[in-house]
Amino acid sequence: MGNKRVVHIVDDEETIRKALSFTLRTAGFAVEAYASGPEFLLSAEDAEKGCVVLDMHMPDMDGLQVQAELTRRGIDMPVVVLTGNGDPTLAVQAMKAGAADFLAKPVEKAALLGAIDRGFSWLESIARRASEQADALSKAARLTQRERAVLRGISRGYPNSLIADELGVTSRTVELHRASLMIKLNAQSLPDLLRIAFAVDLHESTENGHL
User: Fold this and answer.
1) Across the chain, what does the average pLDDT equal?
2) Helices (H) and strands (E) in the chain, counts
3) pTM for the full model?
């Protein structure tokens, strides 16, 4: 593999594996591809440290199960989760379990490379993670109590309607708070919001028994 950074692709669809492998190799990465979670796990402990691009929906073990097994074995490699279904609940589960990012198929090259770069940054610098947490805390400190409550609901995978019911407001009000969150937190996507929420443990806290 030389000095190239290694990406481990785990996806049961051969066409996806080939397309991702081509994209990543042309971008300068070394690539190892696996057709299933069990196949990857057979060699994961001895595999070269790198970033794992992991399909969420596979027949033998789904992405969350593979991710959980990596954690159980103490294999500390960043995971980028791919899914054909952009379900926010799955995004919450994957990122709460430690995924570096969550991308919906078909994956844009720029988004994929950006996610992998974040994964390697996570792998290469624990100090960077501490810095990112401090940055998240600083950003979260700018939020109003209501905005924090909305972010907490988002981090739990709640739809706008449920957040609105919990807070006693309209769905439109929740949409406005979400827009404000994106601006205040300098977030471009749902994973950006989730990273900040999880960094400051908003998903675990409660206020007055709500959200």
Assistant:
1) 87
2) 10, 5
3) 0.64
